[in-house]
Specification:
This protein is of the alpha+beta class. It has 2 helices and 9 strands.
């Protein structure tokens, strides 16, 4: 991954050094990284990078995300092959599957910086349906680690259901619309 544009973008080596520990850790969950993996932190800035092949990425926070020319919702994982562009109105985090960086503290990201990333190793396109955070879990309520654990449990359960063949449906109940995962048992 080679950086084409970076404004108010920083490499944060782990969530403890980030402005929003919760969003940093959740972006790592979504990209199937360790919770303590590095991420690109945008502080009301912009980031653009060129990719060399299919890459799993995730953005958590207040941001507009364009991957390979298509708009992607934040708080979700996505594949990109050619490039990614992010504009952040506040703080947001970009995690890339297997992003490695030898940094002990937060460092500014600059145009031309190159980062190595890991291959996909059996991550299926269908897995992306599970790698998203519902609106109700997008805010750290109380301790940020407990909130991350709730998101991690949710993603784990949904990912297992998706891999078993579950389908997502929308249901209306008492005037509200909800997304539900349905798994047919035989």
């Amino acid at each position: 991954m080679v950086v084409r544009k970076a404004y108010r973008a920083f490499l944060s080596p782990n969530p403890l050094g980030s402005q929003d520990k919760f969003a940093h850790a959740v972006s790592n969950l979504l990209s199937l990284n360790s919770l303590t993996a590095p991420a690109i932190e945008l502080q009301g800035g912009e980031f653009e990078a060129v990719l060399n092949g299919k890459t799993l990425m995730a953005v958590a926070g207040d941001a507009e995300v364009i991957a390979d020319g298509r708009r992607v919702e934040p708080w979700t994982a996505f594949f990109a092959r050619e490039g990614v562009m992010i504009r952040s109105g506040a703080t947001a985090y970009l995690s890339v599957r297997g992003l490695s960086a030898a940094a002990s503290g937060k460092l500014p990201v600059r145009e031309g910086d190159a980062f190595s990333v890991q291959g996909l190793n059996g991550i299926a396109d269908s897995d992306l349906r599970a790698l998203r955070v519902p609106h109700t879990l997008r805010v750290a309520n109380g301790d940020w680690l407990e909130s991350v654990a709730r998101v991690q449990r949710h993603i784990g359960m949904v990912l297992e259901a998706v891999r078993r063949g579950a389908e997502q449906v929308r249901v209306r109940l008492n005037g509200g619309e909800f997304e539900v995962w349905v798994l047919e048992l035989s």
